[in-house]
Each structure stands twice: as C-alpha cells, then as structure tokens.
Design a protein that fits this description.
7 strands; 55% helix; 337 residues; 12 helices; single chain; Rossmann fold
C-alpha cells in the first residue's frame, strides 16, 4: 500500500523571503508551474512565493502546448505540474522528459500536485518518473520541507527497459541489483546551494545519458535472455506449438531495440546483434520456434551480457555464438528449400 503524504490544510501567509531558514537562496531558481484550474492557481503561486521562490522567475502556464514549449527550451530548474485535469497526459509528459524525448534535461526535478488522495493516481505519477507527489491542501512548511528533500536527499535514478526515474525499490531489492542506481544532475540543488557537482551542464548530462543507455541496454539484454529461456522451455514442453503472440512480439521488439542501441558499439557487439536479429527472423518465418533456436537466442543474449560486463572471455563467446547461429540458420534454410 502506498503512503500518501498529504499536508495539513491551510496556507500560512508570510512575506516573500529570498532565503529560507537553512540559508538557501531560491531567487535564481526558474520554475514552470502548470495549472489549468484558475481557482487553485493563486494558492499554488502564493505557496511557491512563500517558500522563497521569486515570483518573477515563476512561469505560470495554463495550456499544454505552452508547457511543452517551455520544457523544450531547457530553461527550467523545477517543474511543478498540477495534474488533476489531465492525469494521463501529465504522466506521458513526465515519461517523455525522462526518456529524453522532450527537453534537453531528462533529470529535471519534477513535482506533481494533486487535490485527490487517490492511491492509484499517485502510483501512476510515481511510475511515470516524478520526483514527488504532494496532495493538497498542504501548508507552506510542509511543501517547503518536500522541496528541501529534493535539494538535499533526492533519490538516485534507476533504469529499466521502459522506465527512467527515481529509484523506488526497497534497499534490500536495490542492493542485489548488479546495475544499481546513480546520481543525476539537479538544477534545483545547483541554483539554491551553488553545488557545482549538481549543475546540469552539457558534460554532466552526457555522462548521465551514457549511463542510462548502458543500463537500458543491459536491462533489455537480461529481459531477452529471460524470454528466450521461457521460449526454449515452451518449445521443449509443446513441440510444434507456436509461442503465444505476446512473448513472440516482445522478443522481436527486444532484438530490434538491442540492435538499434548497439549500433555505436564495438565490432563484436555489432556482429552479435546482427546475428541475433537473423535468428529472430528465422524464428518468425517458421510456423513455430524450435527449442534449439530459442536456446541459440538465449546464448546470444548471454554473450552480449558478457560483452557489456567486459568479461575476458566475451569475444570468444561472441565468435562461438555467431558461428553456431550461421550454421543453424543455413541448415534450416536448406531443409525448407
């Protein structure tokens, strides 16, 4: 069950401060506040002002096209989205940012504002990659504490085949993951504390993007190995029976994605992924995938994982896998002629 961290009702009124009690300077932070609900717009705007953000640096947006344009410019340090009117669209927007499809900074600090204490809705926001979800109404002190957390204790990021964002796993689960998590640029921290290591400049964004690509490729390869193993067991248990459509399509998508993400890799990696695609095409062209073809696909995934890890015997595994695949595919072609 997800814990909903709602604030206390009511909003304290105080003069705008350039620094809060911790000495952080909020005056240079550029905020984009998306809010289509005119009746709550002033509440959120005043809350940001009372936390210490400069009103002149807070861009209030009420139209989705203007929101997309603002994010794409890359001049935002802190994105605040009131999501009740368009929850699905806001989730999609957050995903697009995290996957590098919108704007230059996939690691932009993002807070979602909702007036509905709905576990399912909040879970959707979290799964999209938001840093935080605040259930309104909330006091200024509560909201300020959440902002401080994003500055001082922002979660490190993790990557799966279809997710990039703050790591939400328990410590026990993340500790056994060979890829683990990694820190990302934090424009909000940089602007409020002056911490140069958090600055989302071009070099740090490239470094983080490189880690994301490496992790995503590894995740896809691990998933391919798992699905190929399942296909092998299925073919052994039900000879001649086609693999169900869903896992077959997923296998095809994974092999295509892996080949696309490996184009800038080594010669060994390029040869291996091309061979892997050939195996998958042979599987798709037959009425049913045989166990040996799925086993060969699994071996290719294992060889690719070995390459990704930098194992000493990786090249030997690649050569062996490619040679075996070539023989198997040629033999199947001769039999079908």
């Amino acid at each position: 069950m997800l814990n909903i961290n709602s604030g206390k009702a009511g909003h304290s009124v105080r003069s705008w401060n350039t620094e809060n009690d911790t000495g952080r300077d909020y005056t240079e932070v550029n905020i984009a506040l998306f809010n289509e609900m005119s009746q709550t717009r002033s509440i959120l705007r005043d809350s940001l002002r009372n936390i210490g953000f400069r009103p002149g640096n807070t861009e209030v947006l009420a139209a989705p096209d203007k929101l997309h344009h603002t994010v794409s410019r890359g001049e935002v340090d802190f994105l605040v989205l009131e999501a009740d009117e368009r929850p699905s669209e806001m989730c999609e927007l957050v995903r697009d940012i995290r996957l590098g499809k919108l704007g230059p900074d996939p690691y932009l600090v993002i807070s979602i504002i909702t007036w509905r204490a709905d576990n399912h809705l909040i879970t959707d926001f979290i799964k999209a990659g938001a840093d935080d979800v605040i259930v309104m109404p909330a006091s200024v002190s509560f909201a300020s504490g959440r902002v401080d957390h994003l500055i001082d204790d922002r979660r490190e990021f993790s990557v799966t085949t279809d997710y990039v964002g703050p790591d939400r796993r328990s410590k026990s689960r993340s500790s056994i993951d060979e890829l683990g998590t990694f820190p990302v640029p934090n424009g909000l921290r940089y602007k409020t504390t002056g911490d140069e290591s958090a600055k989302p400049n071009a070099a740090r964004l490239r470094q983080a993007n490189r880690i994301v690509e490496e992790h995503r490729l590894r995740r896809m390869t691990l998933r391919l190995e798992q699905l190929a193993g399942q296909g092998e067991r299925f073919a052994n248990e039900r000879p001649g029976t086609p693999l169900p459509n869903a896992p077959m399509v997923k296998l095809l998508d994974l092999t295509e994605d892996i080949e696309m993400h490996s184009r800038d890799g080594s010669v060994s990696m390029t040869e291996l992924t091309a061979s892997m695609t050939g195996i998958m095409q042979a599987v798709m062209s037959s009425s049913s995938g045989s166990a040996d073809m799925f086993a060969l696909l699994r071996v290719h995934a294992q060889a690719l994982l070995s390459l990704q890890r930098g194992d000493k015997d990786a090249t030997e595994l690649v050569v062996r896998a490619v040679k075996t695949a070539k023989k198997v595919v040629e033999n199947r072609s001769r039999k079908s002629d």
